[in-house]
Design goal:
Blueprint lengths: L4 E5 L3 H13 L3 E6 L2 H7 L7 E5 L8 H12 L3 E5 L4 H8 L4 E6 L4 H34 L3 E5 L5 E4 L1 H7 L3 H4 L8 E5 L5 E2 L1 H6 L8 E10 L4 E10 L16 H4 L14 E7 L1 H15 L9 H14 L8 E7 L2 H27 L5 E4 L4 E6 L4 H14 L2 E5 L2 E5 L1 E7 L7 H17 L4 E4 L5 H21 L3 E10 L8 E10 L2 E3 L1 H10 L3 H18 L7 E5 L2 H5 L3 H12 L6 E6 H6 L1 H14 L2 E7 L5 H5 L6 E4 L1 H4 L6 H16 L3 E4 L5 H8 L5 E2 L8 E2 L3
Parallel strand pairs: 1-2, 1-3, 3-4, 4-5, 18-19, 21-23, 23-24, 24-25, 25-26, 26-27, 27-28
Antiparallel strand pairs: 6-7, 6-12, 8-9, 8-10, 10-11, 11-12, 13-15, 13-18, 14-15, 16-17, 20-21, 20-28, 20-29, 21-22
C-alpha cells in the first residue's frame, strides 16, 4: 500500500515538530515542514504530497485558508486544517475553500489525526472520481447528436443537452422550468392528430426500458415540422445530484462535484429524440426512385408489372375494361445517331410529357425499355380504348427539333385487352409486344390490336414462344450437332471438310434450324447458340482421333460477330482445349460481312493469323460483291445455292457461277458450290471446275458422332 506523503504548515515550531513526530510514528512520510505561506509555495511544487496539514492562522497574519486554496488551484493538493476554533464562522469559511477536505480541533491525539487524515483522503478521492464521472457525462451528453430532455412528472423541462436545445430552438436558460409543450407538440404521422405528451409519457410507466416510437412528428413553436424517432422512460429511483430540483440545500452542501443535470424525483421522465426528417426525406426519394424511371419520371418496368398484375387479377372475363398497350418510338436508333444520346433523352422526356397530357388521368404510364413505353388504360371499353390509342398515334407524329436539326418522329403501338385467359402478365406483355413488332414491320406510325384472327400477330406470338423453348433447350443441352460433308472436286484441292449444323431435340422429334434459327436471330439468341456450337465442336474434335485431319466449318452469325466478348471466349477455349485452329473454317455470310465490314475485316485478320480459315457464305447475293471481296482476306467463296441449283437449265446462272470461280482464282481463293442435289449439277460444276461441292448428292447431313 502506498505510504501517504504529508506537508505540514504550522507557524509554531514546537507544535510543527510534535505533529511531524506523531505522523512518522503512525507511518506517514513527512515531505516538509513550513512556517509561512511564501516558503511553502516556493517548495511544495517539488514535493508532491498527498495532503497538507495547515494551520489557519500563520505568522505575520497570513491566512492558511487562502494558502490552501492557492495550493489546490496550482497543484491539486487538498488540505486538512488545524484550528482551535469550531465556531460556525470558521466552519463556514473552511467550507468555501476549494480542496478543503477536513479539519482537526486542537488539541488532538494520534488516533484522531490518523482517522481524520484517512477519512478525509478517502472522501477527497471519492470526489475526484465523481468529478471525472461528471466531466465524462458532461462530454457524453454534449456530444450525443440525439436530443436528451429530462422532465418532471408534469412535463416541465429540467434539463436539455445541446442536441435538445437545437431541436426545440431554445437555450436551457429559456426552457428550464417551463412545460415542454410550449416548445414542441407531438402529432401522429398517419392521422395528423395531436398526441398529448403526458399520455405518451404515462405509457412508459412500468415498462422496462420505456417505450419506443417512430411514427411521430413534432411541430415547433415556429411551425416547423420535424419527424422523430424516440424513447420515453420514467425515472423510478430518481437522481439527486444538485440543488435545481428544489431540495433547499446548496450545491456545495450536497455535492461539491455535481453532475450536469438537476435532481429529479421518481416521477420524472427521460425523453430521447432523434431527428429523422432528413433520413425520411432521403427514404422518400429512394422509394420514389425504386418505382420511377429517372429520366422521364414515369413509372418503371417493375412498377408497371405490379399494376398489370392487379389489372389481370380484377379482369372481367366477359367484359374487359382494362387495355394494355406497348408503345415504341419508330427509328429511335436514327434519332440517337443524328442527335446523339442527349438529343435522344430529350425526345424521350418530350414523349413522356405528351403521354401524360394525351392519356386519361386514370391511366398507368411507364417507361419499360430504351424507347419503349407501357400503358394501362383503366375502365375503358375496347372500342373506346382503340379510339384513344389511334388518337395517340396521331398526336405523337411530329417533327422533333434539336439544335439546328429536324427529324420526323412516329410511334408504333400494339395493344391487347386484359382478360383472365392470358393466364399471367407475361403473356399480356408478349401479346402487346408482338402486335407492336408487326406494326413496326408494316412501316410504323400505326396501331395494331391483338385479335385471334390476326395471323401476323399470332405468328409473332409463336416466335416469342420459341424464345423460352430455345433458352430451355440450351440449358437442358437438347441441341445436337449434325454435319454435312464438303468434298474436293479435284484431286489436289485439299482435305475434306464438314459443315457443322445444329438440330433441336424435343422428345422424339428433331427440329430443323429453319424453324428456330430465324427466331434466334430476331431475338439475339444466336451468340448463345454459336458459343454452344463452338464449345461442342472443340470437345468433339479433341476427343475423336479419327477426325484429326477433318476441317470443321462453323457458321458465325452477325450478332456473334458484333459480340464484344466472343473473341476472348473463343481464344480462351482454343487454348484450354489445345484444339488446332487450322482445323476450323469459320463461315460468315456475305451480307453480314458487307454490313459490318470493318468489324468483319478485323475479326478475320485476327483469327487467320492464328491459323483459322474463313469462308464467305452465300456469295453472290450481296451488292457490289467483287468490290468488297478484294478487301476481305477470306480463303473460300461459298457460292450461293440459288445459283448452283439451276446451273443445268439456266445458262445465266452457269456463267455467273463460272465468273465467281474465275474471279476467286485470280484473287487466290477457292470456291465451294452448295446445293449440289443431283449428278447433273455435279457434272456441270466439274466443267468449270469449282474446288469443292456440298449437297445431298455428295452427302446428306448426319449426326456428328465419334
Amino acid at each position: 500500500m502506498k505510504q501517504v506523503a504529508v506537508v505540514i504548515v504550522e507557524d509554531e515550531a514546537v507544535i510543527a515538530l510534535d505533529i511531524k513526530r506523531r505522523l512518522e510514528d503512525l507511518g506517514y512520510r513527512v515531505e516538509g515542514v513550513f512556517q509561512n505561506a511564501d516558503e511553502c509555495l516556493e517548495k511544495i511544487g517539488n514535493l508532491h504530497p498527498d495532503v497538507v496539514l495547515m494551520d489557519i492562522l500563520l505568522e505575520e497574519g497570513q491566512d492558511g485558508l487562502v494558502l490552501a486554496q492557492r495550493i489546490y488551484d496550482e497543484y491539486g493538493v487538498p488540505s486538512i486544517f488545524l484550528t482551535a476554533y469550531s465556531d460556525s464562522t470558521t466552519v463556514e469559511r473552511i467550507k468555501q475553500v476549494r480542496g478543503a477536505i477536513g479539519y482537526l480541533l486542537k488539541p488532538f491525539n494520534e488516533r484522531e489525526m490518523a482517522v481524520t487524515i484517512e477519512l478525509s483522503l478517502f472522501r477527497h478521492h471519492l470526489h475526484r472520481e465523481l468529478e471525472i464521472q461528471r466531466t465524462w457525462l458532461s462530454s457524453l451528453f454534449s456530444s450525443i447528436g440525439e436530443a436528451i430532455i429530462l422532465l418532471d412528472e408534469d412535463g416541465g423541462i429540467l434539463f436539455l443537452n445541446p442536441g435538445a436545445e437545437e431541436l426545440i430552438d431554445a437555450t436551457s436558460n429559456e426552457a428550464v422550468g417551463k412545460p415542454l409543450v410550449e416548445f414542441i407538440r407531438f402529432y401522429d404521422v398517419d392521422t395528423g392528430e395531436e398526441i398529448p405528451f403526458l399520455s405518451l409519457a404515462q405509457e412508459s410507466r412500468g415498462r422496462e426500458g420505456g417505450i419506443i416510437f417512430d411514427h411521430i412528428y413534432l411541430l415547433t413553436s415556429t411551425g416547423e415540422r420535424i419527424f422523430v424517432q424516440g424513447t420515453i422512460s420514467n425515472l423510478t429511483g430518481g437522481l439527486q445530484t444538485g440543488n435545481r430540483g428544489g431540495s433547499g440545500r446548496t450545491e456545495d452542501e450536497e455535492h461539491p462535484y455535481p453532475l450536469p443535470f438537476p435532481s429529479v424525483s421518481s416521477g420524472g421522465f427521460v425523453l430521447v429524440l432523434r431527428n429523422i426528417t432528413e433520413v425520411r426525406r432521403l427514404s422518400t426519394i429512394v422509394r420514389y426512385q425504386s418505382v420511377h424511371d429517372p429520366l422521364t419520371g414515369l413509372l418503371n418496368r417493375s412498377q408497371l408489372l405490379t399494376s398489370l398484375q392487379e389489372s389481370l387479377r380484377q379482369a372481367d372475363p366477359d367484359t374487359p375494361l382494362d387495355t394494355f398497350a406497348f408503345l415504341d418510338i419508330d427509328q429511335f436508333k436514327v434519332v440517337n445517331d443524328v442527335f446523339g444520346h442527349i438529343g435522344g433523352d430529350v425526345l424521350l422526356k418530350e414523349t413522356a410529357d405528351l403521354l401524360r397530357k394525351k392519356l386519361p388521368d386514370e391511366s398507368t404510364i411507364a417507361r419499360i425499355g430504351d424507347d419503349e413505353f407501357g400503358i394501362i388504360l383503366r375502365g375503358v371499353k375496347s372500342g373506346d380504348a382503340e379510339r384513344i390509342l389511334r388518337r395517340l398515334v396521331t398526336s405523337l407524329r411530329r417533327s422533333f427539333i434539336w439544335e439546328d436539326k429536324t427529324l420526323p418522329v412516329t410511334v408504333s403501338i400494339g395493344a391487347v385487352a386484359i382478360t383472365p385467359r392470358h393466364g399471367d402478365i407475361y403473356r399480356v406483355l408478349a401479346a402487346a409486344d408482338a402486335a407492336c413488332a408487326v406494326a413496326k414491320e408494316e412501316g410504323g406510325n400505326r396501331l395494331r390490336i391483338v385479335s385471334p384472327e390476326d395471323t401476323d400477330v399470332q405468328h409473332r406470338l409463336g416466335e416469342l414462344h420459341w424464345i423460352a423453348r430455345l433458352q430451355q433447350a440450351i440449358r437442358e443441352e437438347r441441341l445436337t450437332l449434325y454435319a454435312q460433308d464438303i468434298i474436293p472436286l479435284g484431286a489436289h484441292n485439299g482435305f475434306p471438310k464438314k459443315e457443322i449444323l445444329v438440330r433441336l431435340k424435343e422428345e422424339e422429334t428433331l427440329i430443323l434450324p429453319g424453324e428456330f434459327i430465324p427466331v434466334a436471330e430476331r431475338y439475339n439468341l444466336m451468340p448463345l447458340i454459336d458459343r454452344w456450337i463452338i464449345e461442342a465442336v472443340l470437345q468433339y474434335g479433341t476427343s475423336t482421333p479419327d477426325h484429326r485431319d477433318t476441317v470443321f466449318a462453323v457458321n458465325l452469325s452477325s450478332a456473334t460477330l458484333l459480340d464484344e466478348g466472343f473473341p476472348d471466349f473463343f481464344l480462351r477455349r482454343l487454348k484450354e482445349t489445345q484444339f488446332p485452329p487450322s482445323r476450323l473454317c469459320l463461315e460468315i455470310t456475305e451480307t453480314t460481312a458487307i454490313r459490318n465490314f470493318r468489324k468483319a475485316s478485323l475479326f478475320i485478320r485476327r483469327f487467320r493469323e492464328m491459323g483459322c480459315s474463313f469462308a464467305l457464305d452465300d456469295f453472290g447475293m450481296g451488292f457490289s460483291s467483287f468490290a468488297y471481296l478484294k478487301h476481305l482476306p477470306v480463303d473460300f467463296l461459298k457460292i450461293d445455292g440459288s445459283f448452283v441449283q439451276t446451273i443445268v437449265e439456266n445458262e445465266v446462272d452457269y456463267q455467273l457461277v463460272k465468273s465467281i470461280h474465275t474471279m476467286g482464282k485470280i484473287m487466290g481463293k477457292k470456291t465451294i458450290a452448295e446445293f449440289v442435289s443431283s449428278r447433273e449439277i455435279y457434272e456441270k460444276l466439274a466443267t468449270i471446275p469449282v474446288d469443292y461441292v456440298q449437297g445431298f448428292f455428295v452427302g446428306e447431313p448426319h449426326p456428328l458422332t465419334p
